[in-house]
Amino acid sequence: MNEVFKAPWAISLIAITTVISALLLGVILVGLLSGPRSDIAWIVAMVVIPLVILLTSVFFSIRGYAIADDTLYIQRIGWNTKIDLRNLTAAEVNPQAMRNSLRKWGNGGLFSYSGKFYNRKLGNYQAYATDPSKAVVLKLRDRTIIVTPEHPERFVSQILAISSK
């Protein structure tokens, strides 16, 4: 790996994650401590589903971004999402890039902002974000991606240096 960039959390992500995690854990506790324990529908609704939501969100959280050769690795817990940078046409820092976006599919703030989004300026894009104020827009031939590394300007410099080789 040439360089690894942390994925810092915005205050909004911390707040959303804290509140939603507390609510999900509360539902799980209510499910375990009250209600009909022999009712499978109760257990599924009050324990299994909230637990799956919480654990899935943790598993898909963004830990950082690593650049190696022609590939960007979005670091998750136990695995990476790979983005081929050979199709890169532009990279720019844009702290406003995620403003006024609609989430089409994905996670809107439980451990990350990730998935498919849309706004008028970018059109459809994929986000792998933890702090929208650090947004870097990567334009590839076939799609647009937003990442939010700790040092956006240095990240863009590194990406552009690799793609110009």
UniProtKB/TrEMBL annotation:
Keywords, ordered alphabetically: Membrane, Transmembrane, Transmembrane helix
Domain Bacterial Pleckstrin homology: 64-159
InterPro entries recorded: Bacterial_PH-related
Residue stretches spanning the membrane: 12-34, 40-62
Protein name: Bacterial Pleckstrin homology domain-containing protein
Source organism per UniProt: Gloeocapsopsis crepidinum LEGE 06123
